[in-house]
C-alpha cells in the first residue's frame, strides 16, 4: 500500500531540474515507481499498459544515468556541438528517438548491458501502441505472453541497476523502500 501512495504523490510533483542535486535520485524513484506500476498492470492482465510503464521506467533510469555520467559523456563527445546537445537536450529530455545512441554512449563510459535492455524497452514501446503482431511488422511480439516476459526481464534488470547505484547517489529512505517493494513484487525478497 505504501508504494501506491508514494506513486500517486510522486508522479504528480514536478521533477527537479537536471542541474539540481536531487535530480538523479528523483529519476531513480520515478523509475522504481513506474516499474512497480508495470508489474501491477501485468497482474491485472493489462500487458500493453505494463509495456508502456516498463518503457517509462527504463527511460527514467536512463535519464538518471545520463545525468550521473554527464561529465564523462561530455568528455567522450566527438564535438563541441555534441557536448552542448548532451547538456541541453539529451539529459533534460532524453528523446525516445535517440535512446539507442544514448545507451551506446552510456556503454562507452562503463555501463555495460544498457544497450540490449534499451532495445527491449524500445520494443515494448512499440508493443504498447501496436499490441501483438503475428507478422512482426509493427511489433516484435507475436503474443501477449512474449511481451509480458520482456516486461519482467526489463524491470528485473532495472532493479539490479538501481541497486548498483546505491553508493553513487543521494540515497534516500524513499528510494530504499521503493526498491524493496519492487524487489518483493519481482519475487527477489526485500
What does this entry look like structurally?
The chain is mainly α and 190 residues long. It has a single domain, classed as Nucleotidyltransferases  domain 2 (Four Helix Bundle (Hemerythrin (Met), subunit A)), CATH 1.20.120.330. The protein is built from nine helices and no strands. α2 packs antiparallel against α8, α3 packs across α5 and α4 packs antiparallel against α5. The protein is globular and about 45 Å long. The chain starts with a helix and ends with a helix. The model has no long low-confidence stretch (mean pLDDT 91).
Spatial gap, N to C terminus: 15 Å
**Count of runs of 4 or more consecutive helical residues:** 9
Rg calc:
16 Å
- Provide the helix percentage: over 70%
- The total count of strands amounts to 0
Structurally, how many domains make up the residues? 1
Major β-sheet annotation: none
CATH architecture: Up-down Bundle
Give unreliable regions as ranges: none
Task: Work out the strand percent.
Answer: under 5%
Specify the CATH class.
Mainly Alpha
The best one-word shape is: globular
Alpha-beta classification: mainly alpha
CATH superfamily: Nucleotidyltransferases  domain 2
The CATH topology name reads Four Helix Bundle (Hemerythrin (Met), subunit A)
SSE order = HHHHHHHHH
Average pLDDT taken over every residue: 91
InterPro entries: PaREP1 (IPR010268)
Pfam families: PaREP1
Protein name: PaREP1 family protein
Amino acid at each position: 500500500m505504501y508504494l501506491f501512495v508514494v506513486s500517486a504523490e510522486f508522479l504528480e510533483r514536478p521533477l527537479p531540474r537536471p542541474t539540481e542535486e536531487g535530480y538523479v535520485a528523483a529519476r531513480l524513484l520515478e523509475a522504481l515507481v513506474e516499474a512497480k506500476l508495470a508489474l501491477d498492470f501485468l497482474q491485472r492482465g493489462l500487458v500493453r499498459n505494463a509495456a508502456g510503464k516498463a518503457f517509462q521506467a527504463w527511460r527514467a533510469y536512463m535519464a538518471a544515468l545520463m545525468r550521473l555520467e554527464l561529465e564523462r559523456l561530455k568528455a567522450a563527445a566527438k564535438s563541441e556541438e555534441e557536448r552542448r546537445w548532451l547538456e541541453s537536450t539529451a539529459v533534460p529530455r532524453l528523446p525516445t528517438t535517440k535512446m539507442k545512441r544514448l545507451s551506446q554512449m552510456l556503454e562507452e563510459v562503463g555501463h555495460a548491458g544498457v544497450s540490449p535492455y534499451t532495445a527491449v524497452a524500445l520494443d515494448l514501446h512499440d508493443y504498447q501502441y501496436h499490441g501483438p503482431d503475428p507478422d512482426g511488422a509493427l511489433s516484435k511480439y507475436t503474443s501477449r505472453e512474449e511481451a509480458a516476459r520482456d516486461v519482467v526481464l526489463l524491470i528485473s534488470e532495472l532493479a539490479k541497476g538501481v541497486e548498483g547505484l546505491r553508493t553513487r547517489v543521494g540515497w534516500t529512505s524513499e528510494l530504499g523502500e521503493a526498491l524493496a517493494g519492487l524487489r518483493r513484487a519481482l519475487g527477489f525478497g526485500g
